[in-house]
Amino acid sequence: MEEDSFWFTAEIEGKRGFIPKNYISLHPHLWFAGAISRLEAEQRLCWQDTGVFLVRESESAPGEFSLSVSYGDRVEHFRVLEDGGQYYIWDKAFCSLNRLVEFYRAHSIAMEKVVHLRHYPSSLHLNSHLGRNPYPNPYNSNSLESIHSAHCHPNPSPRDWQTSAHSLKPVLEV
């Protein structure tokens, strides 16, 4: 049933189940980017103001989430852990992703410096997933994703470009 387009996975008070699609109307948050890769998250967030973020479906652990945050010159990725209907990144647990995001808007998500989550610029769109179930089946995987930072690199100068047409690919698509 996890791929059935007529059902959504829902959670309320720590209990999970399926709800028929015609019973609800979803309005995804602008910060939810859906099933994008870690690399695409880095491309979207690189060189954004510190704290600009997105939540995406985890690449390495289907059914789980990752929080990608711009640190200006690099992007940090945080695994959102889930245990018994509670979501957490560090040691504080939340009953939903929404509450986790709201908490880290007011409190620093980083340990080494103050970084509050900030809205993504409204001129750029994260919601390439509209029309899909933004809540994947949570029972798929418990594997852990490594948390490494990605450093942003400025655009190469023309002398660094390769001449092969096959090697030319866009760095950022908006």
Task: For the structure shown, list the relevant keywords.
174 residues, alpha+beta, SHC Adaptor Protein, 7-stranded mixed sheet, two-stranded antiparallel sheet, 9 strands, 25% strand, globular, GRB2 related adaptor protein b, SH2_dom_sf
Report on this model:
The chain is built from 2 helices and 9 strands. The relative contact order is 0.21. The protein has a domain of 120 residues: SH2 domain (SHC Adaptor Protein), CATH 3.30.505. It is globular and about 45 Å long. Helix content is 10%, strand content 25%. The C terminus is likely disordered. Strands 3, 4, 5, 6, 7, 8 and 9 form a 7-stranded mixed beta sheet that branches. By secondary structure, the protein is α+β, with helices and mostly antiparallel strands.
What's this, in brief?
This protein has 174 residues and is an alpha+beta fold. The protein has helices at 38-45, 97-106; strands at 7-12, 15-20, 32-34, 53-57, 65-70, 74-83, 86-88, 93-94, 150-151.
Number of helices: 2
The succession of helices and strands, N to C, reads EEEHEEEEEHE
Largest sheet: 7 strands, mixed
**Are there runs of 5+ residues with pLDDT below 50, and where?**
125-150, 154-174
CATH architectural group of the domain at 29-148? 2-Layer Sandwich
CATH class term of the domain at 29-148: Alpha Beta
Structural class: alpha+beta
Computed Rg = 17 Å
Kindly report the CATH topology of the domain at 29-148.
Answer: SHC Adaptor Protein
Shape: globular
Q: How confident is the prediction overall: mean pLDDT?
A: 74
Helix content: 10-25%
Organism: Poecilia formosa
Keywords: SH2 domain
Protein name: GRB2 related adaptor protein b
Domain SH2: 31-122
